[in-house]
Amino acid sequence: MTTPNKPRIAVIIGSTRASRFADVPAQWMLRQAQARQDMDVELVDLREFDLPFFDEIASNAYVPSQSPQAIRWQETIGRFDGFIFVVAEYNHSMTGALKNALDQAYAEWNRKPFTAIGYGGVGAARAIEHLRMVGIEMHMVSTHAAVHIGGSDFFTIFPAVGNQPIESIEQSLLPSATVALDELAWWAKATMAARKETA
């Protein structure tokens, strides 16, 4: 249930692989956001949208999309005021599924903030930096803070190595998660007010 004037935030799972690890950080970040009183949060899983590779005449910034899956995706994204991306790092960048999902919309991302939780050997730091560059092109606002599950923390909870619950490393994640969500809430309220003023 949403509350008027409270930002609607989507936690977007950016990996679609059958063997993905993304559900663990996604569910943890969802719980942190849901515990707050300054946002309404929902999980959005790219697996549920079956997006084709981008093959439109142009971005929907210029030409309406023809793909029903893309239109459904745009309508979904358009309902939210901000985003938390769950980011895996593949070869120093984000997943192809996440980049394709970003490309399948444009106006729906505009003038909205985002943060991220990334995981991997370096906490998906390079993928999140790439995500920020793409976000800027989409006229989005990136928070300064993000959550990086890397190094020994990542290997502690990764199933093939330590296989411990994420709660075992929670104390090292909470400070950055709190700052990232504080920033996201601030920017979401600011951009909501600005969009309303210029609508």
Give me some keywords for this one.
single chain, 199 residues, alpha/beta, 6-stranded parallel β-sheet, 6 helices, 40% helix
Description of the molecule:
Strands 1, 2, 3, 4, 5 and 6 form a six-stranded parallel beta sheet that branches. The protein is globular, with a radius of gyration of 16 Å. It has 199 residues and is an alpha/beta fold. Strand 3, helix 3 (96-103) and strand 4 (113-119) form a beta-alpha-beta unit. The chain starts with 7 loop residues before the first strand and ends with a helix. It has helices at residues 23-34, 68-78, 96-103, 125-137, 151-157, 170-198; strands at residues 8-13, 40-45, 82-88, 113-119, 141-142, 147-149. It is built from six helices and six strands; from the N terminus they run E-H-E-H-E-H-E-H-E-E-H-H. Helix content is 40%, strand content 16%.
